């Protein structure tokens, strides 16, 4: 039975690695996958999903107003696919998450989304909020804070290394821009005075 999956975490947890491994496993068994990623995330090149550990794959890109149900239906008309894999799912619009849910229900194709749960301010991305509401299954991809505890938050650093407290929700960057932290160390980095 097809399901909508949301694999979420903070930065640098290996979400893209897990996506690429899933695609490899399907392809190794002779089953085709359909990979999608946000068009404006061009860190590895436009239409490219790449992991920090050096593996990658080409993907179709999506823009905020693309109809993903129609895109998946068209791709399925060109040949069977066993699974749709969506990277940078936090950038999906709420409407696009509903379109993915319709693809699961009406086209009976599994859709696995991989993305951030919260931004640098500790707020849900709109796409992530809708995925949390609609997904059949959710899985946390874990990473750790410098203290060894599970990291659930992320801070954004400016070029000067200072932690940002406001700004646009979306700024594309990697290890040079974002640091994953546990909630306590995120609070501390955001300027909250913590008891000893």
Architecture overview:
It is found in: Cytoplasm. Substrate binds at residues 170-173, 178. The active site is at residue 88. With 196 residues, the protein is an alpha/beta fold. Helices cover 28% and strands 22% of the residues. It contains 5 helices and 10 strands, in the order βαββββαβαβαβββα. It has helices at 15-28, 68-77, 94-107, 126-134, 183-189; strands at 4-9, 33-38, 48-50, 56-58, 60-62, 83-86, 111-116, 137-140, 153-156, 178-181. It has a 6-stranded parallel β-sheet with strand order 5-2-6-7-1-8, sandwiched between helices. A two-stranded antiparallel ribbon has the order 3-4. Strand 6 (83-86), helix 3 and strand 7 (111-116) form a beta-alpha-beta unit. Helix 2 packs parallel to helix 3 and helix 3 (94-107) runs parallel beside helix 4.
- Tell me the Rg in angstroms: 17 Å
Proportion of beta-strand residues: 15-25%
Report helical residue fraction: 25-40%
CATH topology (fold) name: Rossmann fold
Domain unit count = 1
CATH homologous superfamily assignment: P-loop containing nucleotide triphosphate hydrolases
SSE run: EHEEEEHEHEHEEEH
Compute the number of helices: 5
Q: Low-confidence spans: pLDDT under 50, at least 5 residues? A: none
Total DSSP E strands: 10
The class by helix and strand makeup works out as alpha/beta
Adjacency order of strands in the biggest sheet: 5-2-6-7-1-8
Task: Please identify, by name, the CATH architecture.
Answer: 3-Layer(aba) Sandwich
Shape: elongated
């Amino acid at each position: 039975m097809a399901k909508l999956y949301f694999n979420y975490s903070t930065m640098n947890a290996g979400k893209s690695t897990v996506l690429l491994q899933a695609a490899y496993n399907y392809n190794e068994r002779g089953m085709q996958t359909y990979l999608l990623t946000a068009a404006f995330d061009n860190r590895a090149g436009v239409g490219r999903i790449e992991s920090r550990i050096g593996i990658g794959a080409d993907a179709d890109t999506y823009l905020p107003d693309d109809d993903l149900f129609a895109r998946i239906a068209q791709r399925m008309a060109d040949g069977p696919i066993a699974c749709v894999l969506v990277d940078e799912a936090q950038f999906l619009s709420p409407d696009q998450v509903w379109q993915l849910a319709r693809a699961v229900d009406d086209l009976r194709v599994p859709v696995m989304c991989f993305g951030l749960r919260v931004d640098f301010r500790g707020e849900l991305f709109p796409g992530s909020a809708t995925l949390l509401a609609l997904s059949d299954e959710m899985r946390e991809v874990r990473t750790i804070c410098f203290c060894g505890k599970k990291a659930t938050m992320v801070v954004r650093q400016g070029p000067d290394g200072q932690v940002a407290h406001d700004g646009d929700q979306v700024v594309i960057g990697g290890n040079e821009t974002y640091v994953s932290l546990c909630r306590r160390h995120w609070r501390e980095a955001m300027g909250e005075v913590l008891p000893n």
